[in-house]
Design a protein that fits this description.
Distance between the termini: 40 Å
Number of helices: 11
Low-confidence stretches: 263-269
Radius of gyration: 23 Å
Structural class: mainly alpha
Mean pLDDT: 84
Order of helices and strands: HHHHHHHHHHH
Helix content: over 70%
Oligomer: single chain
Largest sheet: none
Length: 269
């Protein structure tokens, strides 16, 4: 009894310290986004002037718009390509061939971002594609695809192919059977991969730095370029807004997924 009590006690302490370590810096950042003075260590009173300054900075808003649009487009396009690739990989019968393809697929995830950024920049320059918004989008799609494949493949492995074949035997067309049978089963993997891709695209700096051109910035490049002039508290305000938006998005998605799971439970009468 005592061992169980102490075990749970130390587990709770460990979880508390872990979450404190993860979220304490974010909480401090959010608090000082309302600081009246520019200091990040002294409190000078409550103010929202940094939020007002953020919304009046045209260059920052343009970088924010580029970041969001590229993240949305890259995550959706890579989700479509990655899901199709995962289905194709799962369709191979040879385990050795699957292993080789999986190794090639996982290679970009373990490779250095510096190597990927430089190599993609050289590829774009070699084929005479001017660096800009299009190359930035292509590079984000490229490094997001492996994460989609890794997220969708386990769901395909768990899928009972007999259900899909039964739907075909009952007269369903392949596309209809895929939409009604396969897609609902692998949907959690697709959503997880989509969120990972969206987050990675927003967070990326190294690959974006090498594959963008003059006049096209995302938030990471814009902040890196302007941080040389000093830390501006309006970046705290921007980070607070982005953190809240992503947290709300995750909350809504989790609520929807949990409500779907509850609605699928059959209560015996």
């Amino acid at each position: 009894m005592k061992k169980t009590f102490f075990k749970k006690f130390f587990e709770n302490i460990y979880l508390f310290l872990m979450f404190l370590f993860l979220y304490c810096p974010i909480a401090i950042l959010m608090i000082f986004s309302f600081n009246n003075i520019k200091s990040t260590s002294n409190w000078g009173g409550f103010s929202t002037k940094w939020y007002a300054q953020m919304f009046s900075d045209d260059a920052l808003l343009e970088a924010f718009a580029n970041t969001i649009t590229i993240a949305l487009l890259a995550s959706v396009i890579s989700c479509i390509i990655g899901t199709a690739a995962a289905i194709g990989i799962q369709g191979y019968r040879s385990k050795r061939l699957k292993g080789v393809i999986n190794a090639v697929t996982n290679l970009p995830m373990v490779s250095s971002e510096l190597v990927m950024g430089v190599s993609m920049m050289m590829m774009f320059l070699t084929v005479n594609i001017p660096l800009g918004y299009f190359t930035l989008l292509l590079s984000h799609i490229t490094f997001c695809i492996p994460y989609i494949i890794v997220s969708v493949l386990p769901k395909l492995v768990q899928l009972d192919t007999g259900i899909y074949e039964a739907a075909l035997d009952l007269g369903a067309k392949p596309l209809y059977a895929f939409r009604k049978v396969v897609l609902p089963e692998i949907q959690p993997g697709i959503i997880s991969g989509l969120l990972i891709a969206f987050t990675l695209s927003i967070d990326d700096f190294v690959i974006s730095f090498f594959t963008t051109g003059n006049g096209v910035n995302n938030l990471s490049i814009y902040i890196y370029s302007s941080i040389k002039r000093g830390v501006n508290p309006m970046y705290n305000a921007l980070s607070t807004i982005m953190f809240v938006l992503i947290a709300v998005l995750l909350f809504v998605i989790n609520r929807r997924s949990s409500s779907k799971d509850n609605s699928s439970v059959i209560i015996p009468g």
